[in-house]
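Teaching assistant here, posting this on the class forum so everyone can see the example we discussed in section. The complex has three components, and the goal was to see what a joint structure prediction looks like when all of them are supplied at once.
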Amino acid sequence: MVTITRKRAAVANEAMGFFTDTTVCIGCKACEVACKNWNQLPSTHGGVSEMSGDSYDNTRKLDGTHWRHVKFIEQFDGPYNGRWLMMSDVCKHCVKAGCIEVCPTGAIIRTEFDTVVIQSDVCNGCRACIAGCPFGVIDMNMISGTAQKCTLCYDRMGVGLEPACSKACPTDSIQFGPISELRTRAQKRVDQLKAQGEMRARLYGDDPNGPLGGLNAFYLLVDNPEVYGLPANPQLPTRTLTKSGAMSAATAAVLGVLALVGIRKRRIDEKEGATIDV
Amino acid sequence: MQVSRRDFLRVTAGAGAGTAIGGLVGLGATLAPARAQAQELRIRDAKSVPSICPFCSVGCATLVQVKGDRIVNIEGDPRSPHNEGTLCPKGAAIYQLHVNPNRTTKVLHRKPGASDWEVVELEWAMDRVAELTKKTRDDTFIEKLPNGKVVNMSPAIFALGGATLDNEFNHVCQKFWRGLGVVAIENQARI
Amino acid sequence: MGSNMAECHPVAFRWPMKAKLNGAKLIHVDPRFTRTSAVADLHVPIRAGSDIAFLGGLINYVINSQRWNTDPFFKEFVVNYTNAATIINDDFKDTEDLEGVFSGLKGFKEPDFWPENGNLGAYDNASWAYKRGPKGPGPATKDLIAKRAGPPFDDLVRSLKPGPAERDATLQNPHCAFQILKRHFSRYTPEMVEQVCGSPKEKFIKVAEALLENSGRDRTSAFAYAVAWTQHTYGVQMIGCCALLQLLLGNIGRPGAGVMALRGHAAIQGSTDVPTLYHSIHGYLNAPSALRPHETLRDYMAAETAPTSYYGNTPKFLVSYLKSMYGAAATAENDFGYDWHPKILGDHSHIAMFSAMGDGRVKGMCCVGQNPATSLNGQATRRALRQLDWLVVKDNWLTETATHWYLAPEVKNGEVKSADIKTEVFFFPSTQIAEYDGSYTNTQRMLQWHSFATKAPGDCRTDSWFYHNLAKRLRKAYATSTLPRDQGWKNLTWDFDPDPADPAYGTALYPGEISALKVLREINGYQTADPKQHLKGFGDLKDDGSTTCASWIYCGCYPAPDQNMTARREPDPPGVPGAHLKWGWAWPANRRVMYNRASADLKGNPWSERKRWVWWDPNFVNPPDPKTGKPVPHGKWVGYDTPDFAATKAPDAQPKPDGIGLDALSGAQPFIMRADGRGWLFVPAGLVDGPLPTHYEPHESPVQNLLYKQQSSPVHKVWSLGKPWNPIASVGDPKFPYVISTYRLTEHYLAGAMSRWLPWLAELMPELFIEIGKGLAQEKGIKNLDWVVVSSPRGHIRAKALVTDRIGVMKIAGKTIHHVGMPWHWGWMGLSTGDVVNDLTAWVGDPNVSIHEGKAFVCNVERA
């Protein structure tokens, strides 16, 4: 039988993730469709919709049925004078994940690949994670009635396949691999761009000592994160929510902390005992 | 692990909604069942059939994964020197060309002046097209021009299309028409 | 230029992006700042339709540059591998002499028997020919035709050899091709480019310098184009202009070089090679025509054979083709059935046929996998469709063409009543790609096989099934006819049914289905005496009927019943230069870079180590000649690719005085399909609109031609001229002040049938829009997402405005010209619907190939 693996297979017990180099993104949206194809996600209203008027972006945001989303940013100063930035956005698979912390049912787990996955069967649709994500990644999937988002193709990684989006990406703007390798590669690319005079080149989310313990889906940007709709300093929701003082939020936060303890313990157990039998 | 009843319902709901929604297979309750789920990956034990993307002219190689008579997945063939497994959004959507409730699967016929289609038998429709083809060809055939040149042709039938279809189709199409004497054979390469 | 590669060929664009990471420079010259421009190193705006002015400017800049005049590489390449040194007839007059036209211009009169050609004028090209010495001795062609000489037809071919062309290797003779083109392009200065194209001079010079810097022994540059270079009244000249520039820069026949056509459809190359096109029969032979001296088989051979190139083998190609048509009935005595083969009466191309249909000359139509109701002057096209007696649409989706009689805008708004449309309409559903077997030829001329995976639902059948089963019915219907006109059809071979006793060619996937492999066998060719003996390559072809082969260029793709080369999927291992010769099969002879003899210098050595591709190995030990058993001297062309040259012909080999075909060329003439073995800077024959590219304005233009008195091409085509359904705007018409270009998006496919029904694609680009510059939007009070009405002399449509600085305003000839653009994927069917943009385009086109001018015309835009 023919293999469908392209690059390296996922390695369990090693943090895996995405490095998205936005400077080579051509905004083709192959990632959006490849994700839908693999995960069999529907289009909003069966594909019948209206254009947004926001450049070439018509799906607008990540949500329960759009787990990849390509942003278009037109930066022009007069006709033909400027640049058109594109970026394929996805769940950041935060090392300190707000969604895990606020999930009251333990439906959101950290996997043996250090990725963050919502278990559809456990999710009760309470929406705490939607509010808890500092990036606005998660939303309800109205068909399943659960919160959903990118799984980093957990099922594919489990059998040694690269995630669908990065596999499809024609220009390798989305790169998949062990986070440590990706960070090295990303830094080299930043250095290359700077040498070519693009002094605005920077990485977003690559720093394990940075916000949220680093993001396992991190980016190379050529402008401030806000330009791409990314928070400059993303925060764990528990703290924000606690400060807000709202009763329901406080409850969620407490549940979140409890869940966090549970998940962390489970994660350690799994890591110790992990043998991949697929 | 079995697909849960809830998952099954999602599949049904999707199909009923008239759009191509497949099953939203959830992940297991704990990591161990999650692994089991991964083992029951959609494409596990599927047969991979080599294919080519039918959209643009780049010729990206694809693999069509089938279980029985059902396509379960289509993605890029990583061996291809053209695409190395990658695809564009159209290529990534080939699955929906095949599995799509919007496909018309019956032969339709509209009588002259009628206001609606009728569903007809394939064989009847073929007989009727053959009859019309013969009549038009015979009525309009030119053996010689006024200047005496032998041309053996009919200018009154127009065959259009071929650039989205196989070389084999193109051969059969042009041979059929040229054999009959019909020369107006065209495809999208012209425009 | 002329392409938006990142959007329209995103996966092919993988490779320019990889090159960019390795230090290559990407330049995008385009009226819009697109997703390609976004990742290019440089975007240069250009007014749609002015590309010859831009390319002509590059030519002028290059040949006057210090680098081009001092680096010996350029001179060695140009003097030896192109026709720069060839002397042109004394009576040739250039556009410089005749205010924008060439010598030989005359009127054009439509013939009564087919008045649908549309040409506004015509050239007699006799004065464009090479200046030649006297012709050699031997029997005259007309005598050989009269006495029905051949087969073999070698004497006939030899009789066609002209006298030797005069050359001046110093390039100083004022009548040599180089001096003529130097004068011709001298007025294409950077200042003129800025005036005509609206491209800032400093950006233009950056492009010219980058090309010079990246051309030479060690570096190459490539151009990629698509339909933005073809859909013009001078599209062929645009591409020719680029080829001229690339020949001057030594960028042809070498790795990383060339002029690359990025074609639109999966099999569009295949449908050109295996021609479902009126003007051509298999393998780029011209269709027998009532307008040419094609009366008999030998007349055709005499008119169509270039005796001193590989096309010297035309009689072999033609006879083998006729054998594929008429089989055993095709004999030497009856000229292999040549008279049965239909002749064309003139232009039967897409628009010509719809024009003729509108005039009532066309009664029936089979439309398979194409959707003309949304194309080219859509309203005139749909009006023409309404004149048909019968219409067959075979498609995967219910298209606009299938439903025009009850859903077209003119029917919906009551202008036309469905009941008044007397057409009998059929819709046959088709299979999708994974539901049958077959091959596609991609834009690199590569055949790739796709295999059956699963059965199609219901009555869906392959498109080949349709014609196969129609043919069976018509064979029965004509079985008893004794009329002479029916004999061709009765003698046509039709052997495509799978043979249960011979599993090598597969089994029927559907009841009555063809064997795709048997079709491929007929295309590839076989020994007439034994169809199981497939031909191994076009070298096997004979002109006596002993070989049967539909397509000489595809010969070798299926050399044995168990060797389908198109199905191979074995890539080169990593780290190898990567011709991937075991992946699929590219015509001709599995060559991946055409004319690759030019990748080596005169002596056969690679121009540089870095650009090594094919070279002469003088020590190669050849086996004895398999036919004669005689020893063959050492030496062979070798390399990463299949050499595009006679394999054992030494670089210093001289032409044989009496030779025809490749024997008439030396070992240092790489362009073996050209009659002089050289790349043509100056085109002495083959083009109907001039031997050198010349800037003309589009048929509809807001400005006068700044370069010449002649406004537009003097010989281009306007079909249905003067008819109310094809009105045209005059130059500078104030009612239509804006330049408009139509184009495609990544998210949709052409006329949309294959994408507008797919929810995953429909939501990505859900509606039709028009891209308008901020300046024009402000002037017209149009805000982003406002509905606007876009009008041309042919009609008006509605679309939403996408206001952006990615398209805008240009200074052309001192005038401010706004440029707008619209994707044309929409129609009234599907999940994503919109007005038909082609309702705006006109029936005007290129005189060589009859393509329409959809990339540059004029319009008006108003808030709805």
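For the discussion questions: The mean pLDDT of chain C is 97. The longest strand of chain C covers residues 795-804. Think about how each of these relates to the inputs above.
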